Amino acid sequence: MTESKIKVDHLTKVFFKKNSSVTAIRDICLDIKEGEFVCLLGPSGCGKTTLLRILAELETPSTGSYHITPGKAGKPLQSMIFQEQGVIPWMTVQNNVSFGLRMRHASKKELNERTEYYLNKVGLWEFRHLYPSEISGGMKQRVSIARAFANDPEILLMDEPFAALDEQNKFILQEELLNIWEETHKTVVFITHSIDEALLLSDRIFLMSAQPGTILREKKIDLPRPRSIELVRSNPQMGKEFVDIWQHLQETVQQHRDKAL
Amino acid sequence: MKESSNHITRSESIERQLWRRKVRRTRAFQTLTIASPILLLVVWEILSRTAMIDPRFFPPPTTIIVEFFHLAATGQLFHHVGISLYRILGGFLMGVIPAIIIGLLMGMYLPVRYTLQPLVMALMPIPTLALMPIIIIVFGINDLSKMITIAGSVFFPVLINTVAGVTNIDHIYVDIAKNYGAKSKDYFFKIALPGALPMMMEGIQMGQAIALLTIVAAEMIGANSGIGYLIWTKYKTFVLKDMYVGLVLISFFGYLFSLLLRALQRKLIPWQK
Ligand SMILES: Nc1ncnc2c1ncn2[C@@H]1O[C@H](COP(=O)(O)OP(=O)(O)OP(=O)(O)O)[C@@H](O)[C@H]1O
Ligand SMILES: [Mg+2]
């Protein structure tokens, strides 16, 4: 359990275009353990997506490096759930969910079993033959979640997966995510804007500064699992953590604004 | 409970009324679509019969219809139509298939795109019909030379639309494919091809119309059969009624092919509404 899974070492990413440049993240160091659930929390534009895209090998770092410890052979290393609705319009719900499995030529049996299992988990079994244009925004979000889990990666990279959902569906899916996570104990890097969500889900929370994004603080959340939203809400210690994080974010945003003026 | 179910029936009846109104409107529009060509034909008929337009140049539609059955009865019409359809189909496929393949490659691979783009831009404006004499010298006066002429005209619109179709695929789908481990082949068949399909079909629809335009002109220049040949000879011998039969046939096939392609489009692109 204490083995390091993702090690990020002084990672910086600068976006350069013509003669303007944006430093999205600066000097990020992280050490995430096998099976750990961590949240990245920070103001909009602070480089959270950029960091995740680097870990997903969709972007290369400018300087610094990262290392992901490979696990069992034959298992994909990581799967990303994209912030924008990344459901492929020309595939049915079912084919979207099985996409990763099909790409890595999983056996027919594994493909069918995993696809069916996760379609049921996210409540989309009856809708499996529909195209994305025929389902709601929240349902599409659930399709991308099911697709990532069905792919059975070592690491899940989740970029605000519940941001587009209403509160009720968000609760249901958060609990479902925790259930699945308890079953599989995958390493999860989860981006959110919601402090409540971070407290509910994380083992550790990384608080980021406004642009350029750096890691300012980290918080260990020692709440026993399994957790529920009621449990987190009623815990006085968590109430204090909430206020603490809230003030912290408030200050970083304020400082950033002052600097900009 | 009672009240809420009342409420639902009321909503439903309102929606049903709206739906009925929509159906009525659609019907009205459909009537317009059918009525407008008929009205045109009626006006033409009257003007021609009262000699307000010269009936030698614009014979009344009814006489064209009579002439159609007359020509059909002699069997020569079917010969001309058959040979033209054969050339159109052959030329169409000879143009569309390479256009799709090259278009997908140009869309997917930047080196291919940058190499071929200037050639496409330079060659596209040359009307294939202007090359007809050379095509005939090289391939002879036969069906093949006509098919090549059609293929040349159909090729570019399908190519351009296919390239645009691939390059317009939202980048997020490329990222997903990469992140979930798609290989080149998967990317080609699962992302590029279906993603470009809607625009590609528009290009093919355009190509279909161009194929018909081209066949008539090509058969006027170097042929002794086909609808274009029929139109041209009847024009030269001043049998304008027969010429109009040829023109009406072309317009009929254009309409038919459009309908067939639309049906194909609905089959191939079920995710589009
Ligand atoms: N491809 C790119 N080219 C240029 N600049 C980029 C690119 N991607 C991101 N940026 C810039 O990097 C910064 C960080 O962007 P990023 O998307 O990582 O933010 P974020 O923390 O995910 O924000 P949000 O919470 O709003 O999603 C932003 O200023 C953005 O403009
Ligand atoms: Mg983001």
Automatic annotation (TrEMBL), chain A:
<keyword id="KW-0813">Transport</keyword>
<dbReference type="InterPro" id="IPR027417">
    <property type="entry name" value="P-loop_NTPase"/>
</dbReference>
<keyword id="KW-0067">ATP-binding</keyword>
<keyword id="KW-0547">Nucleotide-binding</keyword>
<dbReference type="InterPro" id="IPR050166">
    <property type="entry name" value="ABC_transporter_ATP-bind"/>
</dbReference>
<protein>
    <submittedName>
        <fullName>Nitrate ABC transporter ATP-binding protein</fullName>
    </submittedName>
</protein>
<dbReference type="InterPro" id="IPR003439">
    <property type="entry name" value="ABC_transporter-like_ATP-bd"/>
</dbReference>
<feature type="domain" description="ABC transporter">
    <location>
        <begin position="6"/>
        <end position="235"/>
    </location>
</feature>
<dbReference type="InterPro" id="IPR017871">
    <property type="entry name" value="ABC_transporter-like_CS"/>
</dbReference>
<dbReference type="Pfam" id="PF00005">
    <property type="entry name" value="ABC_tran"/>
</dbReference>
<dbReference type="InterPro" id="IPR003593">
    <property type="entry name" value="AAA+_ATPase"/>
</dbReference>
<dbReference type="GO" id="GO:0005524">
    <property type="term" value="F:ATP binding"/>
</dbReference>
<dbReference type="GO" id="GO:0016887">
    <property type="term" value="F:ATP hydrolysis activity"/>
</dbReference>
UniProtKB/TrEMBL annotation, chain B:
<feature type="transmembrane region" description="Helical">
    <location>
        <begin position="147"/>
        <end position="169"/>
    </location>
</feature>
<dbReference type="InterPro" id="IPR035906">
    <property type="entry name" value="MetI-like_sf"/>
</dbReference>
<dbReference type="GO" id="GO:0005886">
    <property type="term" value="C:plasma membrane"/>
</dbReference>
<keyword id="KW-0813">Transport</keyword>
<dbReference type="GO" id="GO:0055085">
    <property type="term" value="P:transmembrane transport"/>
</dbReference>
<protein>
    <submittedName>
        <fullName>Nitrate ABC transporter permease</fullName>
    </submittedName>
</protein>
<dbReference type="Pfam" id="PF00528">
    <property type="entry name" value="BPD_transp_1"/>
</dbReference>
<feature type="transmembrane region" description="Helical">
    <location>
        <begin position="209"/>
        <end position="232"/>
    </location>
</feature>
<feature type="transmembrane region" description="Helical">
    <location>
        <begin position="28"/>
        <end position="47"/>
    </location>
</feature>
<feature type="transmembrane region" description="Helical">
    <location>
        <begin position="244"/>
        <end position="264"/>
    </location>
</feature>
<keyword id="KW-1003">Cell membrane</keyword>
<keyword id="KW-1133">Transmembrane helix</keyword>
<comment type="similarity">
    <text>Belongs to the binding-protein-dependent transport system permease family.</text>
</comment>
<dbReference type="InterPro" id="IPR000515">
    <property type="entry name" value="MetI-like"/>
</dbReference>
<keyword id="KW-0472">Membrane</keyword>
<keyword id="KW-0812">Transmembrane</keyword>
<feature type="transmembrane region" description="Helical">
    <location>
        <begin position="85"/>
        <end position="107"/>
    </location>
</feature>
<feature type="domain" description="ABC transmembrane type-1">
    <location>
        <begin position="85"/>
        <end position="265"/>
    </location>
</feature>
<feature type="transmembrane region" description="Helical">
    <location>
        <begin position="119"/>
        <end position="141"/>
    </location>
</feature>
